[in-house]
Amino acid sequence: LSATELRLDSDAKTAAVAERLAGLGLANPRIEAEVQSYSVNHNVARGEWATRDCQSCHHDEAATPLQLAGYMPGGVVPAMVGGANIAASGTIQPGADGTLFFQPEPEQAGVYIFGRDRVSWVDWLGLATFLGVLALVTVHAGLRLYVAWRRPRHEPETQRVYMYDAYERFWHWLQTIAIILLLFTGLVIHRPDMLGMFNFRNIVWVHNMLALILLLNAALALFYHLTSGAIQQFIPRPYGFFDRAILQTKFYLYSIFKGEPHPMEKTRSQKLNPLQQVTYFGLLNVLLPLQIVTGALMWGVQQWPQVAAMAGGLPVLAPLHTLVAWLFASFIVAHVYLTTTGPTVLTDIKAMVTGWEDVEVHAYPGAQTEQA
């Protein structure tokens, strides 16, 4: 028999085979079909089962139907059979031309695949927050430029102060660069469909190395601030905090447009105003630890899946990690913009490069000084 004759692609062929089998004494001859699934594992499979193309799974199109066969013998739709440790998540669907397809549905088994899966409301909320901060910054900057054009600002009296030592500047810039690169590489991992020009495997490796640098730098910075006592600058003082916070808020919303000086005196022992204190307190005590923990659990999900499962697994960890990343991106936009609110636009940035800052002199009644 030829290959064409062996194909049971018509009712006549199926009936002929069934009749011959019945003639041989086989009771109720019929076709039963199964599709056997096998697991896909990182760094385990070899040869024909191995692939170096990460985007074969980590991509939007990984959810497209996979063709299993060019025809269905006897028109019988096969059943999916999984192994002892395999969850066959998906449905087998016949095509209009008789072909057979498998539609993957990993979400049925609670599987989250980087680059393929995402929670829409998390992305939209994060994007809205980022764009909202960007819009506020743009409007605020535009108003400052308009006021400066209409009424040139009187240059305040300043004094030169050595504000940041070498290590403070080093850890600040290293942390900033690491966070920005982490946001970029994380975006590539999250949306390879939009940034497919980058190698997914290499980007994941870079992202993990940057995370390690961020963790080590944060740990060393914490040790430095604890041993030097500089940690006190980041802790809001309850006494008079709300009054000072309202005064600082009024400056950003109103007084800055009138060319008035900063309400808080900046010193080497007290670099942060009340709004900066509460922002950094939340950033360093909530967002950064949360991002480190969720990132570590996501990185170790293959080695210690039971630990990640205690926190909800990737379907919980990945969206939470994404949302915090959006908040970090929004913070960076606001942080960079607020550095332009010093005596000159570049005063604060220059200070973080050289260590020396031209600080406004508060030599008038009513000047507010933070208590160390």
Would you write up a description of this structure?
With 372 residues, this protein is mainly α. It folds into two domains: 31-109, no CATH class; 120-369, Transmembrane di-heme cytochromes, Chain C (Fumarate Reductase Cytochrome B subunit). It has ten helices and nine strands. Strand 4 and strand 5 (100-104) form a beta hairpin. Helix 4 (166-190) crosses helix 9 (314-338). The longest helix is centred in the middle third of the chain and has 31 residues, at 120-150. The N and C termini lie far apart (94 Å).
What's the short story on this structure?
This protein is mainly α and 372 residues long.
Per-chain topology:
Elements: H1 3-6, H2 11-23, E1 34-36, E2 66-69, E3 79-81, E4 90-94, E5 100-104, H3 120-150, E6 158-162, H4 166-190, H5 200-228, H6 241-253, E7 264-265, H7 274-299, H8 305-310, H9 314-338, H10 347-354, E8 356-360, E9 368-369
Helix pairs in contact: 3-9, 4-5, 4-9, 7-9
CATH architecture of the largest domain: Up-down Bundle
Biggest β-sheet, characterized?
Answer: 3 strands, antiparallel
User: What value does the Rg take, in angstroms?
Assistant: 31 Å
Helix and strand composition category: mainly alpha
Low-confidence stretches: 364-372
